[in-house]
Amino acid sequence: MGALFLRDVRLGLRAGGGALVGILFFLAVIAVVPFGVGPDLKLLARIGAAMLWIGALLATLLGLDRLFQADRDDGSLDLLIMAADRHMLALTILVKCLAHWTVSVLPLVIASPLLGLFMNMEPAAIGATALTLLVGTPAITLIGAVGAAVAVSLPRGGLLVSVIILPLTIPVLIFGVSASYGAVEDPAPFLAPFLILAAITLFFAVLGPVAAAAALRSSAD
Amino acid sequence: MRLIAENLGGERGGELLFSGLHFAVSSGEALMVTGPNGSGKSTLLRIIAGLLVQAEGMLRLEGTPDAFEGLAAAAHYLGHLNAMKPVLSVDENLHFWQSFNGRGQYSIAEALEYVSLGEIGHLPFGYLSTGQKRRVSIARLLVSDRPVWLLDEPTAGLDKASETQFTGLMRGHLTSGGIIVAATHLPLGLEGSNELALGAAS
């Protein structure tokens, strides 16, 4: 399993891995928001957490369709499925998701404080947003694994994957943003939505790989 | 160890390709699956590998060595695709499959030596020629120990010398008590192997 994690991380970082696409997209989205919204610093600060979350959500969706398709194209997926007696397929998928998250999503989380400055957010809000992104984005990747597994045999499944999983990621977005606001706006709670966010991630850490494994098994041809 | 199929039938896209297949392959034996294009050779191999579900019949491996839990776990599958990443080096690719599949047999350097590619382990897989890629893929069979080899057109893209070499590797596998099921158009040069002709009757 360690070998699979290392391989996927290496693949993501080498040329053509696409790890940079997500972060560039994230940078582009957040960098243009102040131009679109105008120089109202208060407004920017207020929508900052939400914009960071939406940008991170969309950037996370970008590379997800290749999660299994690259392995399918070169025949590796067959061998991963055949090894299911040795490595439970759901576990294999979980490791692939973790590697994908480490390479393509973790950089977004790391870059988010810098982008928070673009949005004139105060330090507490920036910290809370980065923390909620850290806890919440794995759920998006894990939900995405199900969509990627369903669409694995389709040649242009990219958009379909996003359409399938976007509705399922809405709760992540809602609780992520409300926890970020809760950290700075007094009456709103921080801990409750944050814990729900963590629960969503844990829930999909179990359900996502199992569902994706079932989808991959039935799509083998 | 004995691979047994009883009344096996396979379909693809709802169309029955073959049915009523009976065969048994014992340790040290090879089965050559022949037949025209579309007769279901690859489908049969994928069914044996557990990647497709058979339409009917039974398939089992009797006397599986203790280390393996089932047929799919005891089998190496060499399909049309090489299952290697172009951007990783040959060594990295083989190293991954060795640690993922476990039960290391030959070291990566030895396995590459067996397919006469000892010098190119450091190159990215994508730089290799078609035949060299195939030979790296064959080396994958050697780095982890599996008693059953399922080979789909294993010699596609190989030159004469490599074919002979591969025949030697297959012979070695059979001598050590392995089983080979190969779909092929060309004779693989294994004497005493049984032949299963698909699509001949219709």
UniProtKB/TrEMBL annotation, chain A:
Entry GO terms, CC: plasma membrane
Protein's cellular compartments: Cell inner membrane
Residue ranges crossing the lipid bilayer per the database entry: 12-37, 43-68, 89-110, 130-152, 159-184, 190-216
Q: Which residues form the signal peptide?
A: none
**Which InterPro entries does the protein's record reference?**
Cyt_c_biogenesis_CcmB (IPR003544), Cyt_c_CcmB_bac (IPR026031)
**A GO BP entry:** cytochrome c biosynthetic process
Keyword set, alphabetical order: Cell inner membrane, Cell membrane, Cytochrome c-type biogenesis, Membrane, Transmembrane, Transmembrane helix, Transport
- Per its record, what are the GO molecular function terms? heme transmembrane transporter activity
Topology of the protein relative to the lipid bilayer: Multi-pass membrane protein
Which protein family is named in the record? Answer: Belongs to the CcmB/CycW/HelB family.
Q: Which domain of life is it from?
A: Bacteria
Please tell me where this protein is predominantly located: membrane
Q: What name goes with this protein?
A: Heme exporter protein B
Q: Which organism is it from?
A: Phyllobacterium trifolii
Q: What does this protein do?
A: Required for the export of heme to the periplasm for the biogenesis of c-type cytochromes.
UniProtKB/TrEMBL annotation, chain B:
Question: What SMART domains does the entry give?
Answer: AAA (SM00382)
GO MF annotation, one? ATP binding
Describe the location of the ABC transporter domain by residue ranges: 3-201
Keywords (alphabetical) are: ATP-binding, Cytochrome c-type biogenesis, Membrane, Nucleotide-binding, Translocase, Transport
Q: Name one Pfam family in it.
A: ABC_tran
Q: Name one GO biological process term.
A: cytochrome complex assembly
Q: Which InterPro entries match?
A: AAA+_ATPase, ABC_transporter-like_ATP-bd, ABC_transptr_haem_export_CcmA, P-loop_NTPase
Database matches in NCBIfam families: ccmA (TIGR01189)
Q: What is this protein called?
A: Heme exporter protein A
Q: Which organism is the protein's source?
A: Phyllobacterium trifolii
